[in-house]
Here is the input.
Amino acid sequence: MGGAHLQARRKSPDFLIFFSTILLLCIGIIMVFSASAYSSFLTFGDSYYYLKRQLLWAFLGVIAMITTMNIDYKKLKRYVGLIFLLSLILLIVVLLMGQISHGSRRWIGLGMIGFQPSEIMKLSMVMYMARSLAKCGERIQDFRKGLFPQLAVVGLVCALILAQPDLGTAVAIAGTIYFLLMVSGARFSHLAMLALLGVGLVAVAIYFEPYRMERFVAFMNPWESPSDSGWQTIQSLLALGSGGFFGMGLGRSRQKLFYLPERHTDFIYAILGEELGFIGAIIVLLLFFVFIWRGFRVAVSSKDNYGSLLAAGITLMVTLQAVINIGVVTGSLPVTGITLPFISYGGSSLLLSLIGVGMLLNISRHV
Here is the structure.
């Protein structure tokens, strides 16, 4: 009787979250192959080089998503502190012995496999802050006793990520936690102060780093330096503009032929717009909208504060990353190294995003 009663209470996960995630993942796999086939053949002699790796990470990610979907998120709560501590240690390790790529030390290599500790920190930070804010309760309205301890943790994590340097990820994490503080009941005056402080710190980080300043100037007017700092933005806009309403056809992009850098990672949405047109770009946006809508619905419907904050944090994490990436691709934001969730090529980013979705699906089973 008890087992039957337990089965009756156990709900199915939110179908629309699962469906939109899988559909975005499938679109991503197709677009990674289309965007990378030509360059990977010339570089590695294998048109399927990036596709095979993306398929492997997608397979591992879906397995991880299904696994976490079936593990009670409340049971994981007791390990949040350990997960966060390990993530923090990895951020320190990457600064000491990480691989340098494009002037940044963001990767830890394990043979032929590499991963970014900052991607692990994104999810573990959301888990940690959800638990911390749930425990804090109404004390979050007290700056000294409630808000400041949370800000100290966020500041430490963002400082370690900025040291790599990786401003985009630091902004994504800080932005996610900012909105999480908002939904947890922090005072408006404190949030306004934090917003001003955050904008000021980002401005300082841009001003005192020449390559960031070049990117910001190029963002204001990319056509002032079309062959240098404005190149990526211009080529991205050309790709989107060339797609028109219906697109040039899958696999027929011109900008991927070494015109547009990072075509299968940070700027994959531009290739998608070029090949699948306005229709394809809008379909992807609608799928993200469905994911975000259902994610926040789970957060609002959750029966406990921790589950609600965790669901909101995971949804916010995906939302901000998508907004920043698409903003960069469309020239609405300065160029920064943020991938498009579920779509862009990237092992650790894809795996951790799908683990986060698994947790969100598990919370949806308890609402």
About this structure: The chain is about 70% helix and 5% strand.
